[in-house]
């Protein structure tokens, strides 16, 4: 039983059974006429309501003044809309059926519109993903730069407390910072014009200190980078395109550039430039490659041109110099004397039409020259006598190749004094006279093309393996390797 029973019960006054029972007038199934209490007389504004509440059985509380005026205006408006002399029927008409039916979509299927909507959604998703990637990249870049800056600040802080860092100038410190932070992302923007001399001016007492090993390596890398980048910048458009395809100036990791080789310490040890990837002239900055051991330049007959830069004498570690088909002018006479290229062991000068007719006199002072090759460029007067008279070259020279250099005169008899000579190539020249006795160490002899050579040649050693006298008037006796190559008069 509900505990609210007493609140739901009805108390009817005595005689309630005499009141008629009514059904709801709002029900469509109701057929009972409304009670006289809801007759037309109730629309009379002067009609008084029953003082009794049928349900409560208690007198109805008097209405407020506002409710009375509201009812008065409502009744007046209702009576005004009714026909004259006709009382308004208080019965409400039966509600018509709603006739609610389930309706289906009558729109037509449009595949083009659907495809367009799909493309638009796909485009929106792609743009959103791209935006997210860009934001992540920017955030990562900011974090990376912050870490690098903090690392550099820590390094700078440690440098400031290190007495040895006082030897660095403000420009040198700034150049180290720029090479560490900016150059990796933009190699071409690094200010080599100001940083190269600043870093080259760092005293050796700083770079040789083990406590400064990291900064010393950065200085070395920046100096070498600038030296190589100058080669790229000096080249013409075709040369830059060729070098650019080999990563030149595209990254600061110069050891990966085409033609560049480095040792285990990250220092450039070999540089090979081949046309069209050659500079118009050899730049002065090439002297910054102080550890360069081998330089090979094969030009296009007109480039590289000009003279060697003054800084070329700084390449004191060089052991091999190969210049071919260039327009480089005469080599400095003191190039191979101290403090220049005194460690040269191989010197090859081939088809350099602008180099002049003489060799630097300092060649005779080289103590470790093993190979001297000069081809297809005129030499006058003949350097044979000068070479043979050099005690240093007599002791060290193993290969002497002066083919097609327009040599004149006779072959010096003192050539037999060479102690280690294994190859003597003097073909296609204008030599005269007879062929002297050759060194006992000789393995290859090429004298063909000297039509004025005469006399007889007798092998004095069993070491000779290759011999050519074609185009000469020399007769060969007792030298089997030269028989097939001999043209006798």
Automatic annotation (TrEMBL):
Keywords: Membrane, Transmembrane, Transmembrane helix. It comes from Pisolithus microcarpus 441. It comes from the Eukaryota. This is Leucine-rich repeat-containing N-terminal plant-type domain-containing protein. InterPro entries: LRR_dom_sf, LRRC69/RLP. The chain crosses the membrane at residues 126-147.
